[in-house]
Design goal:
mainly alpha, two-stranded antiparallel ribbon, about 5% strand, about 650 residues
Length: about 650
């Protein structure tokens, strides 16, 4: 199967090409089925490659397949090659597996959209780009996939570009990610200048040989981290992710929960050999940015009313956990949480899409309530996702989050306390959302504005939500099963149950083993669970049991509702001065210098032409006189030259 590893990215690319040229002719729903089939076939190939690698040992679990020579230039030869090792195949498994489920879901969700086929064109292209990112054997191939997912993100976020908010959100995501990409490119230039190569194997061997200075390695790691911050929506380049919820919900699930936003974490884990050479402060920066982002985003999520924006800030927070794990030397824990997060967050985004579909495009959780009565399948599956992200055992999120908390406790007690408080907030805000959506009064029945808009006689038709079609709830059931049992891939009981850790052993993830006595390990886990239940209890008390409007308002200060006003701050500090500078440059440089030079040349030509035009009188005698005068001058010149000689 390793010889067929090239099929993993090739199949989604083939789907993209077929849909580009024949998508309209194929039509709905076959265009969606084709897109889903291609990603599903890629998943099956990935499973085959996984079992092939699993049957091998040690260094045999790293396989490079050269596809062709991409850039031959003198002594420089850049190959287009695929790296199949436990890390890349782990990523490919959940990218293609969850991607298949989301494609199936999208067939139902995008039903009736006039650009149905085009949506799956973008989705297949995204999956191909993501696979190129994680399977590439060099920074250069990774960068192509990195830019590819960025372009697809722009296309998918602004898919409903008729809405100004969607068009603006797409542009915002594109611009903010370019800031991070600048750091990534600078790192690549630096690495190539030192190592003479961008292939992972060559660069890491160069680093292990001690040929990288500590300063150069530290600069490279931090510049790569800037790129990771942009792609994975960490402080301060996170502002694009909440607005990205303007895209269709399958986009939110695929790009902004399960795959693209994890690219930054993948990059940080992949470059661990560089971190070994760099200053320890580089990893400290990663850990602190992750912890601060996790806490910052969790506080904002506590006061959001849009069902998808709550999940967007939750995604930021969970990604912060992953960066915290990388920063404290727990790379396996970071990958573990990346996998489980893909399960339960994709489930919750798709569940939110099911709610929005059933509520006729309503996204305000305070206009919902008691939806468990109308949408039982969505309710049960969302319940699993809620318990998983809240950290309640035995659901998947508990095991991976507990590994990160244990590593943070070992490394830095302040970081551990920040992560622990974030865990309480996570349990609270997800419980708040869950209770407001699925329990309590049916607030959509008492929405006076809706009744007035559609008429009192027809209000009952609009007010009754409905369960989603099977194409939407079947993926929910599958993801709920993964969120329930997904933690089994790396149970912390003993070495035999840590399957993910053993699987990743052959990859140079480094990090220190999480050594803790049984009493400490289980004691910290118990503390985490108890505090998570406290967060659930607080949400239950304020949002379901007492329903005190004044107390609820106190828990939702305007500062948190406005997300600390960061967007306004960025607008005042960056956008407004940028607009003024652009206007000044347009007036002074463009109009006066560029346009002045062009207009000045035109005036010179016009003046010269006006003078020369006077010679064109139209009289033959004048032209004859001119010819005679010219001949006299030529004769005089010839005689003068003869006299000189």
């Amino acid at each position: 199967m390793l010889e067929l590893v090239w099929l993993i990215p090739a199949l989604p690319l083939l789907g993209f090409l077929i849909l580009v040229f024949g998508g309209k002719r194929i039509g709905e729903p076959n265009a969606g089925r084709l897109g889903a089939a291609m990603v599903g076939a890629s998943f099956l190939v990935t499973v085959g490659v996984f079992f092939d690698l699993l049957s091998r040992h040690g260094e045999q679990r790293s396989f490079t397949r050269v596809l062709f020579t991409w850039l031959p230039s003198g002594g420089l030869k850049v190959n287009a090659a695929i790296l199949a090792d436990p890390l890349s195949i782990t990523m490919a498994l959940f990218v293609t597996g969850i991607g298949t489920l989301i494609h199936i879901y999208a067939i139902g969700y995008m039903h009736g959209d006039e650009r149905f086929a085009r949506f799956f064109v973008y989705m297949n292209l995204f999956v191909f780009s993501m696979l190129a990112l994680i399977l590439g054997d060099s920074f250069l191939t990774m960068f192509l996939g990195w830019e590819g997912v960025g372009a697809c993100s722009y296309l998918l976020i602004s898919f409903w570009f008729e809405r100004d908010s969607a068009a603006s959100a797409g542009k915002k995501a594109f611009v903010v990610n370019r800031v991070g990409d600048f750091g990534l490119m600078m790192a690549m230039f630096l690495i190539f200048s030192k190592a003479g190569s961008l292939t992972y194997a060559n660069v890491f061997e160069f680093a292990k040989a001690g040929s990288f200075t500590r300063t150069a390695a530290t600069a490279a790691c931090l510049l790569l981290f800037v790129g990771a911050i942009g792609k994975s929506a960490q402080l301060p380049l996170y502002v694009w992710l909440p607005d990205a919820m303007e895209g269709p919900t399958p986009v939110s699930a695929l790009i902004h929960a399960a795959t693209m936003v994890t690219a930054g974490v993948y990059l940080m884990v992949r470059i661990h050999p560089l971190f070994l050479v760099a200053s320890p402060n580089a990893l400290h920066v990663v850990a602190w940015v992750g912890a601060l982002t996790a806490l910052f985003a969790a506080t904002i999520a506590c006061a959001q009313d849009d069902i998808k924006r709550v999940l967007a800030y939750s995604t930021m927070s969970q990604l912060g956990y992953m960066f915290l794990a990388v920063g404290v030397g727990a790379n396996t824990a970071a990958i573990f949480h990346m996998v489980t997060h893909a399960f339960f967050k994709a489930l919750m985004f798709l569940g939110a899409g099911s709610v929005i579909h059933g509520m006729h495009d309503e996204q305000n959780i305070k206009k919902m309530g008691n939806l468990r009565k109308w949408m039982p399948i969505t309710f049960i599956t969302y319940l699993v996702g809620w318990l998983a992200i809240a950290g309640i055992p035995p659901f998947a999120g508990f095991w991976s989050k507990d590994d990160i908390l244990l590593a943070a406790y070992r490394d830095n007690k302040v970081l551990w306390l920040m992560a622990l408080f974030t865990a309480i907030l996570t349990a609270y805000y997800m419980s708040r959302q869950f209770f407001l959506v699925f329990f309590g009064k049916e607030r959509f029945l008492h929405d006076a504005q809706t009744v007035a808009a559609i008429g009192p006689n027809d209000a009952h038709v609009r007010d009754h939500p409905h369960e989603s079609p099977p194409t939407m709830w079947l993926p929910l059931v599958a993801l709920a099963g993964l969120a329930l049992v997904g933690g089994a891939i790396n149970l912390p009981f003993n070495a035999k149950t840590e399957f993910l850790g053993k699987w990743l052993e052959s990859v140079d993830l480094g990090g220190r083993p999480i050594l803790a006595g049984g009493a400490l390990k289980y004691g910290l886990a118990a503390v985490t669970v108890v505090l998570g239940l406290v967060g659930v209890a607080i949400a239950y008390n304020f949002w379901l049991r007492t329903n005190d409007a004044r107390a609820q308002a106190a828990l939702e200060p305007a500062l948190l509702q406005r997300a600390y006003g960061v967007d306004g701050l960025y607008s005042a500090v960056i956008e407004t001065p940028g607009r003024l500078l652009s206007a000044w440059l347009a007036f002074v440089f463009d109009r006066k210098i560029i346009d002045g030079a062009v207009n000045g040349l035109g005036l010179v030509v016009r003046f010269a032409g006006g003078k020369l035009r006077k010679l064109q009188t139209g009289y033959v005698r004048n032209y004859a006189l001119g010819i005679a005068g010219g001949m006299v001058l030529l004769l005089a010149y010839a005689l003068a030259r003869a006299g000189i000689q």
